[in-house]
Specification:
The chain has about 375 residues and is α/β, with parallel strands linked by helices. It has 14 helices and ten strands. It binds 5-amino-5-deoxy-1-O-phosphono-D-mannitol.
Length: about 375
């Protein structure tokens, strides 16, 4: 049932192009309009929403962090993202004008379930983004947008994450469509690129051998740091989480701009630092800033592992290892930039002799608070 792969995780990483395509299937029509008929929250209600709050745990929380950038940019609605385990204990401000999005692969995560119950008690509408048909979280929500990743067996979430991102982009675009915000050429281009993103994920998968080789050489390292900016920041957090849970290594993700506020003190000779570089097109200020960040850490001895778009030549002089990903609009880059980090963590876990599909101390679905 592992389809010829040694681990479910490898199989699930390889299934990502199809999972992404399946999640998009039937949801964007030929003219580039979104048809999310399954979202049973009436358009009239969505037009009245004045805030979006996303609740989730772990990898699903990272998908939520990325969704915030898309929702705020495409709809101009304020969006908060909160760890479900923290949410209801801080007396959050919720009302009938708040749309709460609960993201969960399993649909059974107790922290997320308790947070969504709290939101509904305050009168908010809850939309679940879930991978498991008929599970508790979608059953208790006002509406559900299913991700069509297929069953995910490995404890470390991979294809569920990519499809959660796709579902979040769809919801953000749908909110924009319903509310008539910013429906211009930029959105049309994003919809076009989203429709072909599965091919880009496939392309990344075809170039992963050097990443595997690199991972094997780092098996005795103690710490790996991950840096990103903008949507690359949650990607960095996700890369670090994967490494912790699979390789049992100390790993941390930082917003690259925070380096000089403390974390740069961690850098020592030959410490691997993975940097997720945003596209040099469009938001070039961001790009220039991260190139200086790479220079700064390299000057302090870091071994830089740079994930950058094809054709980005500015990073070449400062990259000890360069991983290329296809060009995408900035907001969609997590769909391609996360894949090398999954492969990296999986290979490091294998090199360290760890159980890839069943990491120690972890369960696939966390049904206790
Ligand atoms: O089933 P859920 O999406 O609600 O699970 C949330 C987290 O427990 C989950 O993403 C966890 O962080 C994964 N093991 C990460 O790979």
């Amino acid at each position: 049932e592992k389809g010829g792969y040694d681990y479910f995780m490898l199989k699930e990483i390889a299934e990502q192009p199809k999972a992404v395509a399946d999640t998009l299937l039937g949801r964007i029509d030929g003219s580039g309009s979104l048809t999310l008929d399954e979202v049973r929250i009436p358009p009239g209600v969505l037009r009245e929403i004045d805030k979006v709050v996303i609740i989730a745990c772990g990898t699903a929380f990272h998908a939520g962090l990325i969704a915030k950038y898309a929702i705020e940019h495409w709809t101009r609605l304020p969006c908060e993202v909160e760890l479900a385990s923290e949410f209801r204990y801080r007396d959050p401000i919720l009302d009938a004008q708040t749309l709460v999005i609960a993201i969960s692969q399993s649909g059974e995560t107790m922290d997320t379930l308790m947070a969504l119950r709290h939101a509904r008690e305050q009168g908010s509408k809850v939309l679940a983004i879930c991978n498991t048909n008929g599970s508790t979280i979608p059953r208790e929500s006002d509406a559900v947008l299913y991700t069509h990743a297929g069953p995910e067996v490995a404890v470390a979430s991979t294809k569920a994450f990519l499809t959660q991102l796709v579902a979040c982009y769809l919801v953000a675009l749908y909110l924009g469509q319903v509310r008539g915000t910013k429906w211009g050429d930029e959105i049309r281009a994003v919809i076009r690129d989203l429709s072909s993103i599965s091919g880009a994920v496939d392309e990344v998968l075809g170039t992963m051998e050097p990443v595997r080789e690199l991972a094997r050489t780092l098996a005795t390292k103690k710490t790996v740091l991950f840096l990103g900016r903008h949507v690359g920041y949650p990607v960095a957090l996700e890369g670090a989480l994967k490494l912790k849970e699979l390789a049992y290594m100390h790993a941390e993700g930082f917003a690259a701009g925070e380096l000089k506020h403390g974390p740069i003190a961690l850098i020592e000779e030959d410490m691997p630092v993975v940097v997720v570089v945003p596209s040099p097109r469009g938001r070039s200020v961001l790009h220039d800033k991260i190139v200086s960040n790479i220079q700064e850490i390299r000057a302090r001895g870091a071994r830089t592992i740079v994930i950058a778009e094809e054709g980005d030549e500015a990073v070449v002089p400062y990259a000890d290892h360069l991983v290329r990903v296809p060009a995408t609009p900035t907001l969609l880059q997590p769909l391609v930039a996360t894949v090398p980090l999954q492969v990296f963590a999986c290979e490091l876990a294998t090199a360290r002799g760890n159980e890839v599909d069943q990491p120690r101390n972890l369960a696939k679905s966390v049904t206790v608070e």
